[in-house]
Design brief:
Largest sheet: 2 strands, parallel
Number of helices: 7
Strand content: under 5%
Shape: globular
Strand order of the largest sheet: 1-2
Number of strands: 2
Radius of gyration: 20 Å
Length: 240
């Protein structure tokens, strides 16, 4: 039970920190507060899974490499490749199955299918190295303490329950988007969709729903998608 409680702690920490990082990035990039990711709550599973993997990879001894600096270089390389692979697989699953592109690196040099690119692989490597050299030891200690706490055991159960409900709801939204995308024979760029909704809300002088930007019902979601398509067509017409 302690191992499970510790794993939930690491996942929650990474998922929440990643959400906050992406939230600030979108504010700087777009000048608007855009709820990142496909979930409703402050959670990005990609980052949560990444922290779990970082914890495991940094716990490996790699004793077959005799030199310390070579051992750590190999560790950082493994971390970089692993996180890049997770990003690629996640992106491909959503793009190919749900017709939803969660991110798009098509404009970046050396990108593969717009899902990964050398720049962001380098960023993953830097973040992984920062974790390995500065955070891992502290997290090992924190995880050992938190995992034994009955208070956290109770809170972790609540967290998992909320997370599962969020997943069920959000995947339902994504399935509705998939149906719309198949009808229109197009691919939905998730971040562009949310940005379009924020821009239309500002244009119409109505308050944007930060938590449920795509609407809380199938009808509102379809209206948002139709507005997104109209925005794309308007921009295409202006560029002609």
């Amino acid at each position: 039970m302690e191992y499970l409680s510790g794993a939930v702690f690491l996942f929650a920490l990474g998922a929440s920190a990643g959400w906050l990082l992406e939230l600030v990035y979108r504010r700087i990039a777009h000048g608007k507060w855009i709820n990142p990711g496909f979930l409703v709550g402050p959670c990005l599973p990609l980052y949560g899974s990444g922290v779990l993997l970082l914890y495991l990879l940094c716990s490996l001894k790699l004793s077959f490499v005799g030199t310390v600096w070579l051992r750590e270089c190999l560790r950082v390389l493994i971390i970089t490749l692993t996180l890049t692979a997770i990003e690629y697989v996640t992106g491909v699953v959503f793009t190919k199955y749900y017709h939803v592109r969660l991110w798009d690196y098509s404009s970046r040099p050396g990108n593969i299918d717009g899902q990964i690119c050398p720049l962001f692989s380098l960023i993953w490597g830097v973040l992984g190295a920062a974790y390995a050299f500065f955070l891992h030891g502290r997290l090992v200690t924190a995880c050992a303490v938190v995992a034994k706490s009955p208070v956290w055991l109770f809170l972790s159960g609540i967290y998992v329950g909320i997370f599962l409900v969020d997943c069920v709801y959000s995947l339902g939204v994504v399935r509705n988007i998939k149906r719309f995308a198949e009808e229109q024979k197009l691919q939905i760029r998730y971040e562009h969709l949310k940005l379009s909704i924020a821009e239309r809300a500002k244009k119409l002088r109505v308050r944007q729903n930060f938590v449920f930007p795509l609407g809380s019902s199938a009808e509102k979601l379809r209206a948002s998608l139709e507005g997104y398509i109209n925005t794309i067509r308007e921009k295409a017409a202006k560029n002609k």
